[in-house]
Amino acid sequence: MKTAMKNIRKITTVMLLASSLACTNGFEEINTDPNRADQATSAQLLTNAQYNFSTNITDEWNNGRFGMYYAQYWSSTYYSDESRYQIRENTNQIMWNTFYTDVLNELHEAQKIEKDSQWPGHQNRLAISEIMKAYTYHFLTDIYGGPIPYAEALNADDVTPVYNTGEEVYAGLLATLDEQVKTLDAAAPSYATGDVLYGGNVNAWKRFANSLRLRIALRMIDVKPAEATEAIRKALDPANGGIISTQEHSALFRWLPSPPNNNPMNQSFKVRVDFSMSKPFIDYLKQYADPRLPVFAQPLLNTNNYVGEVYGRENSNASSNGDPTLVSLPADYAVGATAPTIWLDLAEVKFMLAEIQARELKVGLTGTAAQYYQEGIAASMRFAGVREENINAYLKKVPYNAAKWKDSIGSQKWIAMYTQGIQGWLERLRLDFKDPITGKAIFALPADGSLDPDVTDISKRMSYPLVEASLNGTHYRTAVEKLGGRNSKGVKNWWDKY
């Protein structure tokens, strides 16, 4: 934690390369010599933060062996420990450190530069960094079950920051997003370079911030309904700039065809095949002849058949070892060199609107839950390149069921969030959905059992890195007490009521 609080890693050649882009068109052109740069600019630091964040949630460890397993999109081809909830402590530590050191501190330093310079548009640039900080803390607090270093986390003079509760973090995030949406001014300058996500487009950042407010509010709505409803109302108020409402508005980090700037999962698959499609996911797609199946997965070699790997099978010769004649492997949609990292997209927003209407929140929406549900499916399928006639045929097979709205929305939102392993897992926990038509379970228990005695079905959180107990012991112990006295993956997140 000391490293996370005090040090900022040197800007590498790769990231300086990335920082030269003016928008999401790419970052091939080098306009800064990384070997001669005396001081990083705020634009370069923003690019570094966006690159580091996207890598942290996309790579083979945090996405492949954590998120994609816990959401049961993928199974292990041989080394199954993580799918059975036995983590590698060093990778957990790296994930934690990357969020704090290589994302949040980079943004913090970018803001320092803007505050010192006061160049025209600095308020917009400060707000964009602050929104991204909120997005990062949102991941951290949900991954680790609530309490995290937050209010004191970026104070370089305090190497033992207090852990704020999950409720406190969420309240802070909503307040921050409210403030930044009001600060953003499309009439003023913004980032001319460095913003890989939106090219400095202030209106796009407003829509992203409001859409993030919807996600945060719905995640906590079962325990704080009044506060959540108010946040939703503000997010949907047209005076605040709108929400993501077209695919072009979606927040996507776009990778390039060649290393080191290609999709991190693509690079992983060049070395070895550790991941296959999971049997629960493949079976559910096949059950309703989902036209996204051939987009998401590869058929068995020289066939038109799709087979998912048994989830959580003990390391043995019974595993496929990634043999494409035995099991379906992920297709380019997930592991292609340029497959984008999705931060928040149109399909998710549509499903959130469906849930708002299903809950009858009365926040000014004019569409029905069924309408938004269908629009969510259609948005996902269009992004996957599915033809309109196939979309319409599929919608008839999976009609919206108002009496089982959590099952209808949850199951389809889960499919649409394929590749977003961490968020797919969190939505699985929150909505506890089953198949709305048959009522049967979608997910499977690990075939050969959990390797964590505290976890019988699915990990509810990621345990804190063990080094926190020694580096920030007093506050770490207080945080663990708030989790019931155990740094356990079996302890529910504070918003996970059901």
From TrEMBL:
InterPro entries: SusD-like_2, TPR-like_helical_dom_sf. Keywords: Signal. Residues 1-24 form the signal peptide. It comes from Dyadobacter endophyticus. It comes from the Bacteria. This is SusD/RagB family nutrient-binding outer membrane lipoprotein. The keyword Signal applies.
